[in-house]
Amino acid sequence: MKLLTRMTKARLFRLSVVVGSVFMILLIIVYWDNVGTAHFYLHSSFSGHREVLPTVVKGDGRGSLSDVDEFLEKLLTTDLRSRADRKTEQPPLQASSRPVVGTLEENVRGYDWSSHDAGTMLDQEKIQAERRETLRALCANSSFAFPTKNRSFEDIPNYELNHLIVDDRHGIVYCYVPKVACTNWKRVMIVLSESLLDQGVPYADPLNIPRKHVHNTSTHFTFNKFWHRYGKFSRHLMKIKLKKYTKFLFVRDPFVRLISAFRSKFELENEEFYRLFAIPMLKLYSNLSSVPTSVSEAFKAGLRVSFSDFIQYLLDPRTEKVAPFNEHWRQVYRLCHPCQIEYDFIGKLETLDEDAAHLLQLLKVDHLLRFPPSYRNRTASSWQEDWFAKIPMAWRQELYKLYEADFVLFGYPKPEHLLKN
Ligand SMILES: *[C@@H]1O[C@H](CO)[C@@H](O)[C@H](O)[C@H]1NC(C)=O
Ligand SMILES: *[C@@H]1O[C@H](CO)[C@@H](O)[C@H](O)[C@H]1NC(C)=O
Ligand SMILES: *[C@@H]1O[C@H](CO)[C@@H](O)[C@H](O)[C@H]1NC(C)=O
Ligand SMILES: *[C@@H]1O[C@H](CO)[C@@H](O)[C@H](O)[C@H]1NC(C)=O
Ligand SMILES: *[C@@H]1O[C@H](CO)[C@@H](O)[C@H](O)[C@H]1NC(C)=O
């Protein structure tokens, strides 16, 4: 009893300091367990990128870093620097030292091994600077408005961060947009982050990764998973990573993306999309009371959703009341939060080959891999008029309104030829 009463306030205070320190140390251990396994690559690729990219105005009015942020940030920088000093003599990564496939095979697969000269690099850099500046100016312009534009990064719910894939080994964040070469960029992220093993060895060639693994969400470390690992510190860590890492996304003409989504999900037999989307569309817009339960039966009976049904579904106010747009047709601004996240690189599908080559150089990973060529029958923008021929003008204009922010933010001109008689 006496002993307990003698335990003064000062002692309690000392005890809490000790407990607090232990907690911080534990936090650091947990943190480095995941992030700290990154080696000097993070630092070198990162500082390299800073030299190449012109400085972007950072963090105006977006809230300053809290104490925890600053603490972790200092830790991150100093530790990485010392690691870099210590490790520069080390041999390169296992992945890069694995023998490359024979040149014959590369040619067959359509790899482009030609090096890009300095002139192209400068042009590319100018294009990127313009795209970033367009985005920055529009985000700062209060007369340009779209839903969710004004909210802060803290206000974005976790589940809306599920498209941001992180590679801690090289310091990269990729926001994937379905129907914009995302399968191949996800493959690249798997190779870079070594997040998937093939018989115990990380995949070194993006093309070797089976499609079913590429689209399995458990393969990728996305921002929405941070909460499970870091709890209430997850936002701080995300903010640090967003500040330090190179962030990129790929975009595409919004209407062409919609046509592409329609072609791949409703023209081909897709059981899941038939069940979730085609059945309701057929019932609502084709006035059918009963429809076959499987897609093959429906196709045999000649029942297919038309592009017009699809557009009607997008414009139907009831659609979003059931669930947010599926990611294949959700607006890019809702998937990638371009006013909350300052992207360093904005690629376009229309110039995929050049943009991909430039990006891999910027990321300093062009010696590790090449961007896989794609053989698929890509939806061309010249087909738009045929696709929209049967869509009433009023619907087209409504549809433009629905996707206007994507058109404007990413510099796609308004398709006047589709919107006026
Ligand atoms: C802001 O946007 C409006 C309309 O979108 C445009 O007319 C105006 O020039 C923009 N202002 C600035 C400062 O860019
Ligand atoms: C966003 O904020 C600006 C002023 O900062 C305001 O003029 C605008 O109406 C707001 N937009 C939305 C969609 O809330
Ligand atoms: C995704 O991968 C996890 C772990 O590798 C596996 O357990 C799961 O069954 C996979 N899901 C699908 C849909 O293939
Ligand atoms: C839809 O079908 C029902 C009978 O199945 C019919 O009574 C109704 O008039 C139809 N509506 C339209 C708009 O075709
Ligand atoms: C690509 O698809 C379009 C429409 O689906 C078709 O008209 C065209 O012939 C196809 N091209 C090739 C090379 O398969």
Can you offer a commentary on this structure?
The protein has 421 residues and is mostly helical. The protein has two domains: 26-56 and 63-88 and 116-252 and 336-362, no CATH class; 256-328 and 380-419, no CATH class. It has helices at residues 2-6, 9-36, 40-52, 67-87, 94-97, 103-108, 118-140, 182-193, 211-214, 226-230, 234-244, 254-267, 271-285, 295-300, 307-315, 317-322, 332-336, 352-362, 384-388, 393-409, 416-419; strands spanning 164-167, 172-175, 197-198, 201-202, 246-251, 345-348. Strands 1-2-5-6 form a four-stranded mixed beta sheet, sandwiched between helices. Helix 3 (40-52) packs across helix 4 (67-87) and helix 4 crosses helix 11. The longest helix has 28 residues, at 9-36. It is globular and about 80 Å long. It starts with a helix and ends with a helix. The model is unreliable at 33-66 and 78-114 (pLDDT under 50). Bound molecules: 2-acetamido-2-deoxy-beta-D-glucopyranose (5 copies). One 2-acetamido-2-deoxy-beta-D-glucopyranose is lined by residues 287, 289.
